[in-house]
Specification:
0% strand, 85% helix, 71 residues, mainly alpha
Length: 71
């Protein structure tokens, strides 16, 4: 029974890893760190795409350009 539980958790691990970059990017955007969010997104771009990641990555890209132009 314990082995079955461990295998179930291992099977769910890739889903958790994929969800984290969009959460991290959103958190950085909320902290007004768009350049950092964009950098993180470029590193995570090799992961399978999901709509939430694409949305926040796009916001980070636009906002980081605005930060660069204003600075």
């Amino acid at each position: 029974m314990c082995l079955r539980a461990v295998l179930s958790l291992i099977a769910l691990l890739p889903c958790a890893v994929i969800a984290v970059p969009s959460d991290d990017i959103k958190s950085l955007i909320d902290q007004c760190k768009a350049a950092d969010a964009y950098q993180l997104g470029t590193q995570a771009a090799q992961l399978p795409s999901d709509e939430l990641f694409d949305y926040y990555f796009g916001i980070a890209a636009v906002n980081s350009l605005r930060e660069r132009d204003a600075g």
